[in-house]
Amino acid sequence: MVAIDGWATVTEHHVIDLAKQFEDDGVNSIIYTDIGRDGMMSGVNIDATVKLAESIKIPVIASGGLTDLNDIRALCAVEKSGVAGAITGRAIYEGSIDFAEAQKLADSLA
Predict the structure, then answer these.
(1) In Å, what is the CA distance from 17 to each residue of 13, 55, 84?
(2) pLDDT (tens digit, 9 = 90+) per residue, 53-94?
(3) In this structure, what DSSP letter does residue 97 have?
(4) What's the mean per-residue pLDDT of the chain?
(5) Interatomic CA distance for residues 63 and 61, integer angstroms
(6) Contact at 8 Å (CB) between 65 and 37?
(7) In what order do the strands lie in the sheet with 60-63?
(8) 3-state DSSP call for residue 87?
């Protein structure tokens, strides 16, 4: 379900339904953040991200939980499903991922 207001309010909207609505309104990509993993460095929710990406025609950017290069490899492995990128924050701050190294790896696997 979609959460709003700084993730404090969970709505009645299912993420796929809302993404399809935005897709129909002309949005050209969707950022999907698994709020249960965001900032936790517990790994990206690949299954849910792929499920969303395969349900819509526009690219999906994964967010929430990215920890290390294994997450980059896992995301690159599902790129054909429509996953076009990723957002990371804490992993860079904590030093568990080097941005330049991650970008180089992603480029080599693309």
Answers:
(1) 7, 9, 20
(2) 999 999 999 998 899 999 999 999 999 999 999 999 899 999
(3) S
(4) 90
(5) 7
(6) yes
(7) 30-33, 60-63, 83-87
(8) strand
Of residues 44, 32, 51, the one with CA closest to residue 68? 44
Q: What is the separation of C-alpha 101 from the centre of its chain, rounded to a whole number of angstroms?
A: 19
Distance from C-alpha of 4 to C-alpha of 70, rounded to nearest angstrom: 30
Question: What is the C-alpha to C-alpha distance for residues 110 and 96, in angstroms, rounded to an integer?
Answer: 22
Nearest by Cα to 98 from 74, 72, 60: 72
Distances in Å between the Cα of 63 and the Cα atoms of 24, 27, 66, 107 are: 22, 18, 7, 19
Other CB atoms within 10 Å distance of the CB of residue 7 = 12
Give the Cβ contact number of residue 2 at 10 Å: 16
Look up residue 66 and give its two tokens: 């990215």
Look at the block and give the residue holding tokens 């190294």: 101
What is the value of pTM for the model shown? Answer: 0.88
Q: Which of 2, 61, 72, 59 is nearest to 31 (CA)?
A: 61
